[in-house]
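Entry: Prominin 1 b
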Amino acid sequence: LIVRVIQQNMGGIKMEEWRKWIHYEAGFLLCTSIGMVFVVLTPIIATCFCMCRCCDNCGGEMHQRQRKNADCHRGFFTASLIATTIFIILGVFVAYAANHNISSQIRNTRRLINTNMRDLKTFANNTPAQIEYLTAQYTTAKNKVMSDLDNIGPLLGGRIHIHLEKEVVPALDGALRMAGAMRETKEALENVSSSLEILQEGIGKLQASLSEERSSLSNTLSDPACTNGAVSPTCNTIRSTLPQLGINADYSKLPNVGHALANINTVLRIDLSNIALKGLTAQHWSCVVCNMTFCVFVGVKGMLDKIGAEINGFSKMFPVEASLANFTNFLNERHRSIEAFYPQIDQMDFYRWIACVAVLCTIVLILAFNILGLLCGSCGYDKQATPTTRGCLSNTGGNLLMAGVGFSFIFSWALMAIVTTLFAVSGNTEKLICEPLANRQIFKCKINRGVYLYLETMFNINSFLNRTVYNKDLAKLFESVKVDLKDITLLEQAGRDNLMNFANSGIGQIDYAAFLSEVNKGVTLVDLLSFCADLEDQADQLPRGALENALKGHASSIRTIHREQVVPLEQAMVITHPTTGKSTGKLSLHIYNLRKKCLQITNFIIPNNHFFLFLEGYFKQYTGWVKSSLTSEVAQCKPISNMVDSMEIVGCSFIVDSVNTFWFGLGGCCILLIPSIIFSIKLAKYYRRMDTEDVFEDSPYDTLTWFSRASAPPSEW
């Protein structure tokens, strides 16, 4: 803001800028104005005060009226003056410490200067080597491209393989999974076929056995013993349960899977897995690529050599090494000049230190009068003595206090002038220079970026790299190389026919729902074991004899039928049921997706693509690395930033801050001189020997009119 205001010519001053400047400087102007008023008014007030006292006014008359609370007033003024004196002493100590700190820190600046010079020399020496390293790394990128061109077959073939994995392999995986599904389908159908034979054979034997046992049990119940009145109800109950001895499932109606199984066996004679793998692994990618790209090798290699020559020529275009060598010589000369100036700096700093101490001595002189006045006045004060009979020591204390008042008037305006000047100069220096340095508004290099970052507007490295490293001619050569794979067969005709034969094998027409429905039924109409238990219970209700034994014999026969015929059938059903359900689900899923998978594989065509784009990545990586190195690693601005930091430390932290502390302490002393003057004048009245006095405090009569003043006794000193 200040710079913009200064740069404006008188004919083009903008009032808005001036308003901002006035608002910015309002605090400084206000404080400076107060200081100037103090400087101007203090001598005037001192002169008026002196003339007023000479005329026996303003406390100049050596007369004191005694009051009852005189001791309280004296004690208050004494305590106030002591407190003021203590604060002034603290201000003197603060100012002296700041003054001494300036000298100490100036002596420490030599180490910072040596460190900065060493860093700048390192900066100048390392930058040429860094630039040479950048240009030399193009050879690395070029050699990598050459190596890839020499091995174009395996490398580009590998990239084609990766490309096919992303787009074709999912379809081939579908074919491989379908080949596994074919084998699982065959196993499931074989299980169904064998289980069906077992069930059909076993259910026939079971039906015959149950019919025979039902007839035998019916004959037993026809025995005359069952006509007995007590036995007849039991026999009738058993006779009513005879129809339950029958089979529940009819496995003869289950569909035959033999035809579908035969078709599956025919399909599996061809190994679909090997056919699918051949679609990806049997192609000679290296030979295909070499044949398609050989014609451009010579042109690319020649163009790469030309680009390398242009980069080397560009690095020699700018005399960086010579310029930095001159910069190093300049640093050495400046360093020697600064070192030769050290004695003069020390001498000037000594004079400055003496001047500041002399300024502080004026305040120390006033403090000495105040302290001596307080000591003499307090020690020599006698409560029994009247104002006209006070002792010499007390009178001396009052005179010393008045002497301090006189010196306060003499020096305070000059001290305030010094404080105001230092405040105006160091305060604006702090705002305009130190704060921008502290928050990096002037030089933002805290993260140690390269110097090129701040010179990019002068030379754009991006346009040069885009024009040379990877130009349009080289891009055209790379784009002209094409590898067309549309004629490559991924799945042979035998594999496609195999898939279609599997789809037409008839597995989709099998009624698996009817099979599962029949298998889920129980083998018999009733649980034979429960039937046997009920039969034995009924037999136990009969009288002991042949009929009871015959019924229990039938129960034993039925248990034998259950153990030897029903249990094997149930085990066969348990084994067959999950296999059939699982196979049905898989077959349904494969039948649903079969034609879609076949269509994807048989109609898949790899589109044309430009497989030389990966070579462009080497150049892009090199150019990106060059840009990153120029902005963050080459000619790092940390040494320059350190130099600015050192300027901020020496000029602001060491000097400006200490100067601010000095004027703060000195200004505080100047402000405190005002209450010191007031309290000293008030307190001196209680220590000095008066010429006249009043005996009464609040008389209703004017003693000065009715009685003559008491005169002081003759001095004994």
